[in-house]
Write a structure and sequence with these properties.
Number of helices: 2
Strand content: 15-25%
Largest sheet: 3 strands, antiparallel
Number of strands: 3
Strand order of the largest sheet: 1-2-3
Low-confidence stretches: none
């Protein structure tokens, strides 16, 4: 991941989070949504270790933060 990828990584992670929680209690609360949004957009600058991104047609389609094992994987819902 490069610095240029940071914003798109945040967008993809937040969109994936929102789509994964559709219908779950609390996912529609403004404070929960804002905390998740902030966490995903802050994450790229704070990440320790590698963040691997997958690209599709020059756009980040997903990412994961542990290349030796999958702990979190975030895929753009549009993909």
């Amino acid at each position: 991941m490069t610095v240029a990828d940071h914003h798109m990584v945040g967008e993809v992670g937040f969109a994936a989070w929102k789509s994964s929680g559709a219908g779950e209690p609390g996912f529609n609360r403004a404070d929960v949504i804002e905390a998740a949004r902030k966490a995903f957009f802050d994450y790229p600058a704070l990440a320790k270790g590698d963040v691997v991104v997958a690209e599709l047609d020059g756009r980040i389609a997903g990412w994961e933060n542990e290349p030796n094992h999958i702990s979190d994987i975030w895929i753009d819902p549009a993909c």
